[in-house]
Design a protein that fits this description.
Blueprint: E1 14-16, E2 28-29, H1 30-35, E3 52-56, E4 59-63, E5 69-73, E6 76-81, E7 84-86, E8 96-101, E9 105-110, E10 115-119, E11 134-139, E12 151-157, E13 160-165, E14 170-175, E15 192-198, E16 209-213, E17 218-223, E18 228-232, E19 255-260, E20 269-272, E21 279-284, E22 289-293, E23 305-310, E24 319-324, E25 328-333, E26 338-342, E27 357-361, E28 372-377, E29 381-386, E30 391-395, E31 410-415, E32 427-433, E33 436-441, E34 446-450, E35 465-470, E36 482-489, E37 492-497, E38 502-506, E39 525-530, E40 541-546, E41 555-559, E42 563-567, E43 574-578, E44 584-590, E45 595-600, E46 605-609, E47 623-628, E48 640-646, E49 649-654, E50 659-663, H2 665-668, E51 676-681, E52 693-699, E53 703-708, E54 713-717, E55 730-735, E56 744-749, E57 753-758, E58 763-767, E59 782-787, E60 799-804, E61 808-813, E62 818-822, E63 837-842, E64 854-860, E65 863-868, E66 873-877, E67 889-894, E68 896-897
Antiparallel strand pairs: 1-7, 2-68, 3-4, 4-5, 5-6, 8-9, 9-10, 10-11, 12-13, 13-14, 14-15, 16-17, 17-18, 18-19, 20-21, 21-22, 22-23, 24-25, 25-26, 26-27, 28-29, 29-30, 30-31, 32-33, 33-34, 34-35, 36-37, 37-38, 38-39, 40-41, 41-42, 42-43, 44-45, 45-46, 46-47, 48-49, 49-50, 50-51, 52-53, 53-54, ...
Pfam families: RCC1 (PF00415), RCC1_2 (PF13540)
Length: 899
């Protein structure tokens, strides 16, 4: 089975050219590009630096002695000078005025009064004319109804978005199956729009919008005539217009146009409740609360209503404010007394009772007798700011969301712990989302507590906390404060900082896999990270770094101001971070984990990505920007010489010539059956006792190996080459079963087999042996190394290098000739045959390779390319071989270049 390489999806690409572009006219030899003349032969010129071959994703590349790179394969039939493409930022040089966060997408209004969105887009909810997800902000289309409009409010909700302009005109986009677009069209299961549409303004003409509620099944507005108008899903009466809007079977009909909510008598509405359940409520002109819709979510008697009915029976006094959650509602009277009603199972009513309740007095506790300023109602938890500025919470608290140092529910208000980070702080706003609470204080800082999975607390850890914790500000946030606590939904939160830019934290992708944070990656953010708002600058490119892991691609550009732009390949640069004067030396990328690490010019390692066990830091884990691995423990005072990454783990060879690993327990090599979140020494009490490590390499089949100073090989994980048949991971290093006296100088770790080159020029291989991949004259697997055969003219020759791929393997002998073995149906073996071979066979030298000597080669999938001493490149096998055709070849062909 061949390994699949994921496509890296990008949007709105703009080219940033490093070298000059060219058109495919006359194709010439690559050596003309490299050397300038036919006679300038590096073999006769010891000062000429030889070029090198590499792979980047599905392409082959030639890096010249002067650092220029030419690539072919993938989407190119011939060698092209490499160019770099960056996704442009629509928010570059813009500041943010408003933000709205939904479950899987978010939208902002920038200082140009236009709307920009990111996240899930399959229903058109990003409004940019596409039905595609975007990991970075995209501009909402302004070529139609939004042309010339000034947007003042935006409301993101599930699969829809709506916005209001300066003239109180409303526009919506996204899923319209149930009338959510409000444009007066026909109800249609396939109705959706990826660009804004004007809602039907028939009933709203001449009115201004005082309030917009867009969280529940229906969208509702409070207009300047103090009436409410709703459209969309009419779930058991959520539109509030009465029983007239039903079909012949008595089922309520959804509405594609706003309809007026029918308040009883001559009552008007002061304020709509911010509903996100199946019911709506409003504070009416008689200072009572009226609700309609699905009673099972909030209405006290659990009865459905298709028109508003009074809800605040039992409230003593005049209601001045209304607060709503998913299952409960609360109100505060003019006497500052609080009442709650609805679901009581977790104690959210706050009256020491767990039954469903009509409006019931919140039980005063301590200073609460002084009264309330405000409520925030979550799905099962309620928090309040008291008149004395203390914070109280009640209801569900099993993940610490009551903030009182406990992890249990409370049926009555309990004081939030204000002895720590909240000491002497005054809270002005509280948000409750799912099972976490965040608060904004007058010091312009944000504090969170409760469930911390995927970084939702924002303190740099993946832990829940039952006391308030200060948001951890790193990177571009250092030295800045927040303007307010702006938007939060379920498991991600965003806020506008004092630089008027948006920073988000929490889970990086929705349950359906859509990126949520707008950073260009799906990695969770354990600390607030700036939403993508950059472009490649005009500064010179200082550094181009290519991934050195498993051929999955991965490229980073570093410009002269230290900004770094990374992507899956050179045509997909996404801005990630700024390093200032720090420089990347080597980059490593493991696609299966969506994780990347680099070694910098201080020989230290930083990592970023989605899989937390590969981050090497127990404090700051998943991250869309690099975080240093933990150097405070086993790596203290050590620098890094080599880094490898594999599936769910990483290892380093340190300056003390020892290896340290972290990640999933099967691959850590420390003899312990538990994950390691920080670098941990591998077990050196056994076969490695007293030895130093010279080389470290990862095997794609799930194992890691070292070559010690005795030139013997030791492995752990899976496929360790010692004959183990258990199928279980080997937790401590074991010696590979090589013949006595064999000393290893080089290695090549292919996806399915591992190859070791000894000092006497023999190759030993183990792993998958189908199609003759091990080269030992058989076509069967082997758990221990077998020697690669040397038939015919090879019998007395030494091998100098070896390169393994998914299907075949090639090697160079001491005469600089190439031999291949394994799968041959695509011409992989280069010997003018489509037959497999379980022993090495010489590639054809009767054509372009006549008289050529090879100094390096590299194999990928069903193709191999070789670099000769006179700096020509030749390829054979399947696909695009760089000779200006997309047809494979059974024999080597010369890679061509267009000057």
């Amino acid at each position: 089975m061949l390994k699949l390489i994921k496509n890296f999806i990008i949007y709105s690409i703009v080219m940033f050219t490093v070298s000059g572009c060219f058109s495919p006219e006359t194709l010439v030899s690559l050596k003309h590009k490299i050397l300038g003349t036919e006679n300038d032969n590096p073999v006769n010129n010891p000062n000429n630096v030889l070029s090198s071959l590499s792979v980047n994703g599905s392409s082959f590349c030639l890096t010249q002695g002067n650092g220029n790179r030419l690539c072919w394969g993938g989407q190119s039939d011939y060698a092209k000078t490499e160019t770099f493409s960056a996704v442009p930022s629509v928010l570059k040089n813009k500041t943010i005025k408003k933000i709205s966060v939904a479950t899987s997408h978010s939208c902002v209004i920038a200082n140009d009064d236009k709307v920009y969105c990111w996240g899930a887009g399959e229903e058109g909810q990003l409004g940019n004319g596409q039905f595609e997800t975007s990991s970075i902000p995209v501009a909402v289309d302004t070529s139609g109804v939004l042309s010339g409009k000034t947007m003042v409010e935006v409301y993101a909700r599930s699969e829809n978005t709506c916005a209001v302009d300066s003239n109180s005109i409303i526009y919506c986009w996204g899923n319209g199956e149930y009338g959510q677009l409000g444009d007066g069209g026909v109800l249609d299961a396939n109705r959706k729009s990826s660009v804004p549409v004007l809602i039907d303004m028939t009933l709203l003409a001449g009115k201004t919008i005082k309030q917009f509620v867009n969280k529940g099944p229906a969208s509702c507005v409070l207009a300047s005539d103090d009436n409410a108008y709703c459209w969309g899903i009419n779930l058991v009466g959520t539109l509030g217009e009465g029983s007239g809007n039903v079909d012949v079977n008595g089922n309520y009909i959804n509405s594609t146009s706003p309809v007026q909510v029918q308040m009883p008598g001559a009552l008007t509405i002061k304020k709509l409740g911010e509903s996100f359940g199946g019911a709506n409520c409003a504070l009416a002109s008689d200072d009572n609360v009226y609700c309609w819709g699905y009673g099972g979510f909030r209405i006290s008697n659990l009865a459905n209503r298709d028109t508003p009915a009074i809800e605040s029976i039992g409230v003593s006094g005049t209601i001045k404010s209304l607060y709503m959650g998913e299952y409960n509602a609360c109100a505060i009277t003019t006497s500052d007394v609080g009442y709650c009603w609805g679901r009581g199972a977790t104690g959210a009513i706050g009256n020491n009772n767990i039954s469903n309740q009509d409006a019931a007095l919140v039980t005063p506790v301590g200073s609460l007798a002084a009264g309330f300023k405000s409520f925030t109602v979550g799905s099962k938890t309620v928090c309040a700011i008291a008149l004395d500025d203390k914070i109280y919470c009640w209801g569900q608290g099993t993940n610490g969301q009551l903030g009182n140092g406990a992890n249990s529910n409370s049926l009555v208000p309990v004081p939030v712990d204000m002895s720590g980070v909240l000491n002497n702080k005054i809270i002005t706003k509280i948000q409750i989302d799912y099972e976490r609470v965040c608060a904004f204080a007058t010091d312009n800082e944000i504090y969170c507590w409760g469930l911390g999975a995927a970084g939702t607390i924002g303190d740099g850890a993946n832990n829940s906390t039952n006391v308030p914790t200060l948001l951890n500000k790193t990177g571009n946030l250092i030295g800045k404060t927040f303007n307010s606590l702006e938007g939060s939904d379920y498991d991600s939160t965003c806020a506008i900082a004092s630089d008027d830019k948006v920073y988000c934290w929490g889970r990086g992708s929705s349950p359906m896999g859509e990126p949520e944070l707008g950073t260009g990656r799906s990695a969770s953010g354990y600390t607030p990270t700036e939403v993508y708002s950059h472009n490649i600058s005009n500064q010179p490119i200082l550094n181009v770094i290519y991934s050195k892991n498993n051929r999955d691609g991965g490229t980073c550009l570093q410009v002269s101001n230290g900004d770094v732009y990374c992507g899956a390949n050179s045509s997909a640069m996404i801005y990630q971070f700024s390093l200032g004067s720090q420089k990347i030396k080597e980059l490593f990328y493991d696609e299966s984990n969506d994780a990347q690490c680099f070694i910098d010019d201080n020989d230290l390692v930083s990592c970023w990505g989605e899989y937390e066990d590969v981050m090497g830091n127990a404090v700051i884990s998943k991250s869309p920007i690099p975080r240093p691995i933990d150097f405070s423990g086993a790596l203290n005072n050590k620098t890094i010489k080599k880094l490898v990454m594999g599936y769910q783990y990483a290892c380093v060879l340190a300056s003390d010539q020892q290896v340290y690993c972290w990640g999933y327990e099967d691959y850590v090599g420390n003899g312990v059956s538990s994950n390691a979140l920080v670098p941990t020494p591998i077990d050196t009490t056994g076969v490695l006792s007293g030895l130093e490590i010279n080389f470290l390499f990862a095997k794609a089949d799930g194992g890691t190996c070292v070559i010690a100073d005795n030139q013997r090989v030791y492995c752990w994980g899976y496929g360790t080459g010692n004959g183990d048949i258990s199928g279980n991971a080997i937790l401590s290093p074991v010696e590979v079963s090589l013949p006595a006296g064999v000393k290893i100088e080089k290695y090549s770790a292919g996806p399915y087999a591992t190859y070791l080159l000894s000092d006497d020029g023999d190759i030993y291989s183990w792993g998958y042996g189908g199609n003759g991949l091990l080269g030992n004259g058989a076509a069967i697997d082997s758990l221990i190394p077998v020697v690669v055969s040397k038939p015919g003219a090879l019998a007395t020759k030494k091998f100098l290098s070896v390169s393994g791929s998914e299907s075949h393997t090639c090697a160079i002998d001491e005469d600089s000739q190439v031999y291949c073995w394994g799968y041959g149906s695509d011409g992989n073996l280069g010997n003018n045959s489509t037959s497999d071979s379980n022993v090495p066979v010489a590639i054809s030298t009767s054509g372009v390779m006549s008289g050529k000597s090879t100094h390096s080669l590299i194999s990928l999938w069903s193709t191999t390319c070789a670099l000769s001493f006179d700096e020509d490149v030749y390829c054979w096998g399947a696909g695009q071989l760089g000779n200006n055709t997309s047809t494979g070849s059974l024999v080597p062909v010369e890679v061509r270049y267009t000057p």
